[in-house]
Amino acid sequence: MLQLHPQEKIILVIRKHWFVMVRTIIIFLILVLMPVAVFTFLPLLSQIIDIAPAVPFINFLTALYLMVLLSLLFLAWMDYYLDMWIVTNQRIIDIEQLGLFSRNVSEIPLERVQDVTLEVHGIFETVLKFGTIRIQTAGEREFQITDVPHLYELKETILRYAHPGSKFKSQTPV
Amino acid sequence: MLIPAIIILLLFTPLYGVFVFAILYHLKTYTIPGRPHPRVVTTIFLFLSTLLWLFALYFLFKIPY
Prior knowledge:
Order of helices and strands of chain A: EHHEEEEHEEH
Radius of gyration of chain B: 16 Å
Oligomer: heterodimer
Strand content of chain B: under 5%
Largest interface: A-B, 31 and 32 residues
Number of helices of chain A: 4
Number of strands of chain B: 0
Mean pLDDT of chain A: 84
Strand content of chain A: 25-35%
Helix content of chain B: over 70%
Shape of chain A: elongated
Helix content of chain A: 40-55%
Largest sheet of chain A: 4 strands, antiparallel
């Protein structure tokens, strides 16, 4: 669970772009349609062998198959929902949910932020306005956040709180 | 085919329940305090799960002994 320091307040909570979840839903829909393909071929099969007694069993297995798919979609959504970046007035917290019972939480104090770089590659990232943000810190490892929406707003917020009153100001997209 | 179907359902149901409980536990534990709890998605998921389980049960009763 997230514990905030005294005098600390949350400024931004950012999750991955919705397109990430749409990709998962498309795969889910393809898998949902697979039983439809099976049911399409059942009448052809029934001309060769008598499958009528097996139909309720096939329906039973299909219901369980859909339950499995539904639970996996719910797991993917949980992963999406719990994966987040929290910008507070003191630090940036990166929370990465790795399925069930596995979770990474790392943070950077805002005063150690030296540089923020944005990367947008490909047609989807350009059109849907999301991408990768890299944060360079003083003497620490590079911090990278992928599939982030509102890139410019996030960069500006980080720089504003990292260097209050300084000349740091992000460039608006041209 | 009825006996294998009953065995499948008896094995599947508790496993599914544990899996779903684990997801709900994660959501309850790690949702940011003060932020809206993801009730809508959870409710839809539980409703659809129950519906599909009832369908499975219905088709189970249709399987000839």
